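User: Structure please.
Assistant: Input sequence and predicted structure:
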Amino acid sequence: MKLRALVLLDYDLPDAGLIEAADQQKALQAKVDEITKGNPKIVYSTVDMRERRGDTQPDLKKMKFRQT
């Protein structure tokens, strides 16, 4: 069976610039690497951070993901 796990984290960095945001992404990537390092069942992982607008929280169960 193939599975995909999704984790959604909303950051609030009101006074941060691009450098602090990049530092947060690097720290998150390090934690993901730590989780995946010892698990041979995880075949792929990636981290991406983007600017967020609004304060509503999305419902992951209703989100659709497309691959091209």
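The chain has a mean pLDDT of 90.
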